[in-house]
Design goal:
mainly alpha, about 130 residues
Length: about 130
Amino acid sequence: MTNVRRGFNRLFVVVWVVWVLVVVWWGMNFVAKDRAAFDEMIYEGEHGRSSDRAYRATEPELANWRKRREEATFWHLAHGFVTTRDGLQIVALVLAVLPAIIYAVLFGTGWAAGWIYRGFRGIDQRGPKGK
């Protein structure tokens, strides 16, 4: 029984590390898509589909988009999460609470399944209690 628990704990640690990597990848992917959107907005604002300047972005709009594109980095996103109370709550929820709940549910399910299995096997191999 101890080896099963130890193996389950090790498996959980490996899965948790993979989960953290997935969350980091998701953040990096979000930033990459955000930067690509700003690139497209800047390109359209500079070149446009029409030769008429009225349909193109103004210089202050372009400057704002360029500034926002330069600020769209993974570290800027991470800084926003770890320096605010709401951000820290989200990080704690995603990286600690959610995996802990999943661990508890799976561990409880495994314990219950083992308990039911031992009930069908009859008396424990150690003998009845008290003897």
